[in-house]
């Protein structure tokens, strides 16, 4: 668990560097990625991976909105690095492998699942944005 | 006679500033709605209300209201550079608060456009390598797979960067990089260095996976930017196909 915490932090911050995030925001990139990954790991056993990534992305989006408010920078800087651990790279790889092994039915199943997870990540980001707008309106 | 030409020159200056801001943002991988929003907002605060901007991943069109000609900019190359997005956003904020006038803003945007990326290529490769190692652990790999993933991920990311500069065809660069990753992972396993081939490959290809593009594409679609969404989706699918088939070539030899 501790290993997961540390590796997800480093991986997200590393992606911050790959995407040329401002130096001052690397720490926050790591934190949002770590939080998202933690939520995902805790939930994906009891829920399905799709709903677990949806909830994790909403949390990543929420944290990113808060960071964006504090540091007065666009939300995308924090959310991009934060969602990277949730991207279904492993599923996409396994789907590809099954295609190569001529196991098309399993491959299609995995590919569909990868597509569903990508969709839920995007949906989660949009949801957190909508929630942020609603909260702002209520406060005003 | 003099009056109209000075007015239209002022409008052209504002348009140029808006277009430059939009161009930098789009080339740095900002979302479509953010690019359009920033351009329209800059135009509004500088004195052109009711302008229209239409942004797709390859072109920006911008027209002010009335009879002035519209302008168009072609975007050839897109990368992800969050630092530049943040800087253009800052300039836009300063224009809104009245700190900058048109000329100052234009000069500042020129500086931002010409600035080199925040991190050196070497540092980015190291970051990709370490991130690859971490991903192999996150996907339930063992610590024995950490170092092989670091090496394969670093080499793969470096290969994609340099090959892209060399051949200019993104698809080919990604395919070869993924092939190299698969090959390296297979060699490491053959040497008894690392336990699980799958975990090493998954970790190492993560820097090449178009995660940002896919999510941006779906967000654009949801926001009603249908053309941008579909073309970004096609771009992401092509990249996914390239990395997938690069690895698949290696896998066909193994299985």
Record keyword descriptors for this entry.
heterodimer, A: 140 residues, mainly alpha, 6 helices, globular, B: 255 residues, 3-stranded antiparallel sheet, 10 helices, elongated
Can you put this structure into words, describing what you see?
- The complex is a heterodimer of chains A (140) and B (255).
- Chain A is an all-alpha fold and 140 residues long.
- Chain A has one domain.
- Chain A is 81% helix and 0% strand.
- Chain A has six helices and no strands.
- Chain A has helices spanning 2-18, 26-43, 49-71, 76-83, 89-100, 104-139.
- The radius of gyration of chain A is 16 Å and the shape is globular.
- Chain A starts with a helix and ends with a helix.
- The mean pLDDT of chain A is 88.
- Chain B has ten helices and three strands, in the order ααβββαααααααα.
- With 255 residues, chain B is mostly helical.
- Chain B has helices spanning 2-27, 32-45, 82-96, 102-114, 121-138, 146-167, 170-190, 197-205, 211-222, 226-254; strands at residues 52-56, 59-63, 71-74.
- The model of chain B has no long low-confidence stretch (mean pLDDT 86).
- Chain B folds into two domains: 2-114, no CATH class; 121-254, no CATH class.
- In chain B, strands 1-2-3 form a three-stranded antiparallel β-sheet.
- Chain B starts with a helix and ends with a helix.
- The longest helix of chain B has 29 residues, at 226-254.
- Classes of the chains: A mainly alpha (140), B mainly alpha (255).
- At the A-B interface, helix 1, helix 4, helix 5 and helix 6 of A face helix 3, helix 5, helix 8, helix 9 and helix 10 of B.
């Amino acid at each position: 668990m501790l290993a997961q915490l540390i590796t997800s932090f480093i991986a997200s911050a590393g992606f911050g560097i790959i995407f040329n995030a401002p130096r001052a925001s690397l720490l926050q990139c790591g934190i949002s990625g770590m939080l998202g990954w933690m939520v995902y790991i805790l939930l994906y056993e009891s829920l399905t991976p799709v709903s677990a990534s949806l909830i994790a992305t909403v949390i990543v989006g929420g944290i990113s909105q808060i960071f964006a408010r504090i540091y007065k920078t666009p939300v995308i800087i924090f959310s991009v690095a934060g969602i990277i651990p949730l991207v279904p790279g492993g599923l996409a790889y396994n789907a590809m492998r099954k295609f190569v092994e001529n196991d098309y039915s399993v491959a299609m199943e995995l590919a569909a699942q990868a597509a569903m997870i990508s969709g839920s990540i995007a949906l989660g980001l949009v949801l957190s944005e909508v929630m942020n707008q609603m909260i702002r309106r209520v406060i005003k | 006679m003099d009056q109209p030409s000075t007015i239209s020159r002022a409008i052209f200056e504002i348009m140029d500033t808006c277009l430059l801001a939009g161009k930098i943002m789009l080339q740095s991988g900002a979302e479509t709605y953010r690019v359009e929003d920033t351009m329209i907002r800059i135009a509004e605060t500088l004195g052109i209300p009711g302008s229209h901007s239409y942004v797709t991943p390859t072109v920006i069109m911008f027209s002010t209201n009335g009879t002035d000609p519209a302008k168009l900019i072609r975007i050839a190359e897109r990368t992800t550079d969050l630092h530049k997005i943040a800087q253009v956003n800052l300039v836009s904020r300063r224009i809104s608060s009245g700190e900058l006038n048109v000329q100052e803003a234009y000069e500042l945007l020129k500086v931002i456009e010409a600035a080199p990326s925040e991190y050196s290529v070497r540092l980015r490769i190291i970051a990709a390598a370490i991130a690859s190692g971490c991903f192999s652990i996150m996907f339930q790999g063992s610590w024995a797979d950490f170092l092989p993933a670091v090496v394969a991920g670093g080499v793969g990311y470096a290969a994609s960067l340099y090959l892209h500069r060399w051949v200019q065809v993104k698809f080919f660069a990604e395919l070869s990089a993924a092939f190299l990753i698969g090959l390296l992972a297979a060699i490491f396993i053959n040497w008894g260095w690392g336990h699980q081939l799958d975990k090493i490959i998954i970790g190492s290809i993560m820097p090449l996976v178009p995660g940002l593009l896919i999510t941006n594409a779906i967000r654009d679609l949801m926001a009603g930017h249908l053309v941008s969404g579909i073309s970004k989706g096609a771009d992401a699918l092509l990249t996914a196909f390239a990395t997938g088939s690069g690895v698949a070539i290696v896998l066909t030899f193994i299985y």
